[in-house]
From TrEMBL:
<keyword id="KW-1003">Cell membrane</keyword>
<feature type="transmembrane region" description="Helical">
    <location>
        <begin position="223"/>
        <end position="244"/>
    </location>
</feature>
<protein>
    <recommendedName>
        <fullName>Transport permease protein</fullName>
    </recommendedName>
</protein>
<keyword id="KW-0812">Transmembrane</keyword>
<feature type="transmembrane region" description="Helical">
    <location>
        <begin position="21"/>
        <end position="40"/>
    </location>
</feature>
<keyword id="KW-0472">Membrane</keyword>
<dbReference type="InterPro" id="IPR051784">
    <property type="entry name" value="Nod_factor_ABC_transporter"/>
</dbReference>
<dbReference type="InterPro" id="IPR013525">
    <property type="entry name" value="ABC2_TM"/>
</dbReference>
<feature type="transmembrane region" description="Helical">
    <location>
        <begin position="137"/>
        <end position="159"/>
    </location>
</feature>
<dbReference type="InterPro" id="IPR047817">
    <property type="entry name" value="ABC2_TM_bact-type"/>
</dbReference>
<feature type="transmembrane region" description="Helical">
    <location>
        <begin position="166"/>
        <end position="184"/>
    </location>
</feature>
<dbReference type="InterPro" id="IPR000412">
    <property type="entry name" value="ABC_2_transport"/>
</dbReference>
<feature type="transmembrane region" description="Helical">
    <location>
        <begin position="98"/>
        <end position="125"/>
    </location>
</feature>
<keyword id="KW-0046">Antibiotic resistance</keyword>
<keyword id="KW-1133">Transmembrane helix</keyword>
<feature type="domain" description="ABC transmembrane type-2">
    <location>
        <begin position="20"/>
        <end position="247"/>
    </location>
</feature>
<comment type="similarity">
    <text>Belongs to the ABC-2 integral membrane protein family.</text>
</comment>
Length: 249
């Protein structure tokens, strides 16, 4: 645990010193929310009487989590290329604390970006109706998704051969919220796409956040979302352990 805390501090300091990447990670959520609300919101009918900003906020949160988590893959690749991991191993620091440090930094960046999105959303008309239990439940689902995605990104970083290849992970992750209920209801989609959009993990997380934040009945959806996150997290941690031994053995 002490090694993991030290590596988390290192990753956070690296994020703070990389000013360009930090500004991009924090400014991107703000720009995306404004683009979707003011560029596309007036032309999209969500089938409800609510403002589009109320509908789109959960989708923007997950889209930004994908962008933010993808930086973990790039950071892991750069550690491998510079040889710093070999130095850490000579100090008897294992792979789990090193990767956990990058994941913790990713979670911290994403939580700051989430706070910015919420602040801006409130300013332009977002009015949640979450219950007292709904707020921590929504935060728990979002944090579980961020951790699962960050560990998946760490595994991709161990698999990639260059930062450019790891950066390609951004495209895949940022694409997944589009074929979901993030920005439009699935009713307008073709039947073959609707089936995928309604059952993919991103939709389960989005519908959980939307229901919890707006005080609506959510049924088993949050548990399904958490099950997806737990599955992705477990597979990613196991894959990361195997890939770390393979890349550094």
């Amino acid at each position: 645990m002490s090694d993991a805390l030290i590596m988390s501090g290192r990753a956070l300091r690296m994020s703070r010193r990389n000013v360009d990447a930090l500004i991009t990670a924090l400014a991107l959520p703000v720009m995306l929310l404004l683009i979707f609300v003011y560029f596309f919101g007036g032309a999209i009918d969500t089938g409800t009487n609510q403002q589009y900003v109320t509908y789109v906020v959960p989708g923007v949160l997950l889209l930004c989590a994908g962008f933010g988590s993808s930086n973990t893959a790039i950071a892991v690749v750069e550690d491998l290329k510079t040889g710093i991991i070999d130095r850490f191993r000579s100090l008897d620091i294992g792979g789990a604390p090193i990767l956990a440090g990058h994941v913790a930094a990713s979670a911290a960046r994403n939580l700051v970006a989430t706070a910015l999105v919420f602040a801006l959303a409130f300013a332009i008309g977002f009015r949640p109706a979450a219950t007292l239990a709904g707020w921590p439940a929504a935060l728990g689902v979002l944090l579980a998704f961020i951790l699962a995605l960050s560990w998946l990104s760490a595994a991709v970083g161990l698999l990639a051969k260059s930062p450019e290849a790891a950066g390609g992970f951004t495209f895949f992750v940022s694409f997944l919220p589009y074929p979901s209920t993030a920005f439009v209801p699935t009713d307008s989609m073709p039947s073959w796409l609707r089936g995928f959009a309604e059952h993919q993990p991103i939709t389960q997380v989005i519908e959980s956040l939307r229901g919890l934040l707006l005080g609506r009945p959510v049924g088993w959806t949050p548990w399904i979302a958490l099950a997806w996150c737990a599955g992705i997290l477990g597979a990613s941690v196991a894959a990361s352990a195997w890939l770390f031994r393979r890349r550094t053995g």
